[in-house]
Design brief:
Elements: E1 2-19, E2 29-39, E3 44-49, E4 55-61, E5 65-78, H1 83-86, H2 89-92, H3 124-131, H4 140-154, E6 156-157, H5 168-174, E7 176-177, H6 179-192, E8 197-204, E9 221-229, E10 233-238, E11 243-244, E12 249-255, E13 264-270, E14 275-286, H7 288-294, E15 298-305
Parallel strand pairs: 6-7
Antiparallel strand pairs: 1-4, 1-5, 1-13, 1-14, 2-5, 3-4, 5-15, 8-9, 8-12, 9-10, 10-11, 14-15
Helix pairs in contact: 3-6, 5-6
Protein name: Transglutaminase family protein
Pfam family, one: Transglut_core
Organism: Gordonia sesuvii
Length: about 300
């Protein structure tokens, strides 16, 4: 469950919103059920698919309100990652051959993901950091795994240390941030050497500390990165946790950067001077023990409010 609640100190006469809260149907991920609810009930509501194939929802609340709540609930079945992709010639070959620019028409669709953003994120600091990873002739999967581990070791996770507007260069300088920052650092490094990389958002089913029960709402929305391989495969990796993305990750949306797929954004009309946002996320594996014993796929229940 993903739940987001906005509270205002004055009446809001109109709220427009767009959200990315419905998980994607993918070869290794099947959406069993998904539901997004808005309170107060919107006067206008529509769903669609964006240019990257993500499910998005639009709403317009015209009734006066001082609180707006968006709640998403979904049940998703996720398979373990395909080991064949990691052992493919594209993954084991030199990273230089994984550049879309050298694969001709085969890499045409991925070329967009190799381009820098505006304002540019690829700086000298990014190039220097990537240079220690992408040495000549190194296998692509080896380099990506090394990049994942280096970011995990070199950066400190600290909630509240950055904002969505914080630049990659600033994160590199401070060596701290949150999952969105670490994903964006990885993406900038990959693009600095000509590789295609995308930003992926979703959820991660996390375990509680040993001896403690799970705490409802203790999880958070998550983000990671993915690199393109010739053959049109993508390998997703999670620098925040120093691991490749697996069956505990639920993919909601992807794009070139966070700005392409924020969980929720919108515009309000109000005289309010102050507002507060409360977000809670709970990701609960269903029948986790059975899945672990059999090696079969796991079902994950994701509920959210933005």
């Amino acid at each position: 469950m993903h739940r987001t609640c906005y509270t205002y100190d004055d009446v809001v006469s109109s709220s427009y919103g767009r959200c990315y809260l419905t998980p994607r149907d993918l070869p290794g991920q099947r959406v069993i059920s998904a539901d997004v609810r808005i309170e107060p009930e919107p006067d206008d509501w529509s769903t669609g698919v964006d240019v990257y194939g993500n499910s998005d929802s639009y709403f317009h609340v015209r009734s006066s309100h001082d609180e707006l709540t968006v709640t998403a609930n979904s049940v998703v079945e996720v398979d373990p990652p395909d080991a064949g992709v990691l052992l493919s010639p594209a993954a084991l070959g030199p990273w230089e051959l994984a550049r879309p620019s050298v694969t001709g028409l085969a890499g045409a669709a991925a070329t967009e993901f190799a381009l820098d953003l505006y304002p540019p994120e690829i700086t000298d600091a990014v190039r220097d950091y990537a240079a220690g990873v992408f040495t000549p002739g190194r296998p692509t999967i080896e380099a990506v795994t090394d990049l994942t581990g280096r970011i995990f070791r070199d950066f400190t996770y600290k909630s509240g240390s950055t904002a969505i507007s914080t630049r990659v260069d600033t994160v590199l300088e401070r060596r701290m941030g949150v999952c969105q920052d670490f994903a964006r650092v990885a993406i900038a490094c990959l693009r600095s050497v000509g590789l295609a990389a995308r930003y992926e958002s979703g959820y991660l089913a996390t375990d509680p500390p040993p001896g403690r029960e799970r705490i409802f709402g203790a999880d958070a929305s998550h983000a990671w990165a993915a690199v393109w391989l010739p053959g049109d495969d993508w390998v997703a990796f999670d620098p925040t946790n120093d691991k490749l993305v697996d069956e505990r990750h639920v993919t909601v949306a992807w794009g070139r950067d966070y700005d392409d797929v924020p969980p929720l954004r919108g515009v309000i009309y109000t005289e309010s001077k102050k507002s507060r946002i409360d977000v809670s996320v709970d990701v609960s594996p269903i029948d986790e023990a059975a899945g672990r014993d059999s090696g079969a796929e796991s079902e994950v229940e994701a509920q959210a409010t933005d």
